[in-house]
Amino acid sequence: MSVQFFDKFNVSTREITESGFLRANATFTRAGVFKYATSMFDQKELPEHLKDKKVIRVLRPASELEKSVAQFAHVPVTDGHPTEDVSPDNVKVNQVGMSLGFVEFKDNFIFGKILIQHKDAIRKVQNDKDELSAGYTADLVLSPGVDKTFGEYDAIQTNLKINHIAIVKHGRSGPKVRVLDELNKEINMIERTYNDVTLTFADESSAEAFDTILAEREETKADIDEPSTTVSVEDEAEVNTELIAKDKEIKDMSEEIETLKGKLDAEVALRPSPEDIDKLVTSRLKLVDEARSLHDDIEATGLTDLDIKRTVIAKSFGDKLDITEKDEQYIDGVFTSLLLARKEEDKQESKKLAKSFSDAATKENKPNNKQLYEDSIVNAWKSK
Fold it and tell me: Are residue 282 and residue 354 in the same domain, yes or no?
């Protein structure tokens, strides 16, 4: 059976090129067992035991992924999945960039680089639409088993054919496969819907745990809903007890999600505003200038503001002043005193310099005795 798949991952270390394009390291896909809705497969080709399932667990083997690694080079990048495969007939409409030539398979992941060229797509990636979804077809071998790394599965993907890589908001493979920005340490939330309520998870493992609980609940519920003359009152009561337990697990997980949301909101609230960042930068530059006015060989890179002040004091006093155990208030006081002393020295130096210029000018304009004698000889006739 040949099936079309869309599996999502993420965009990493980004830079804007001189031409204004966005170039980034990216993770395209990974090996593993993934759950797909049974409805996406051709029901005629599914065996009866799979038709009754709501989801089918599909293994994407590392060996098959490794064989397809070269296909991920020079692939069109699209903004979302197009309604049809990208081809020479529609590439002008669908393509917003492309994957570059460097691609490697490592630790069950396929890594590479992408170049995003369309301004709207660049803006979306910078605004966190930064997960990737590989659009491809694969043959589906309906053979269940247990993978030693990824666990149980119902079918296996083989013969992968890559068509495009789409930029999406959330991907099947989760935030591990994304256009990664190493400066951002945000919690990558994953959404699931239960009873018309959207739940948000902090990581893929939590979302998968929720999927497992929900799937077990559906299977248990199906046992009750299916008519049977052999179900006893005791059996039904036991199943109901299991359902209650599963509902409690879901409730507990929902409460945990709310707690994580609260932590995320608190983290966001602590982030400095653009105005605060401007003030911090201005203050830092001022401190570095002040430090170098006292010692021009101060190297501030990697130092905190307090470390810079301690370094200046140590250079100024040497062993004469031990500041090892001194607190921040003391350090600020000594540093401020050094600055005031420097300003006073500069003021006195300016006065001395001004006086020396003034004395030199006066001396230059005052005639000497020789000049007076010569002038008297020259002007002697005027008195007769």
Answer: yes
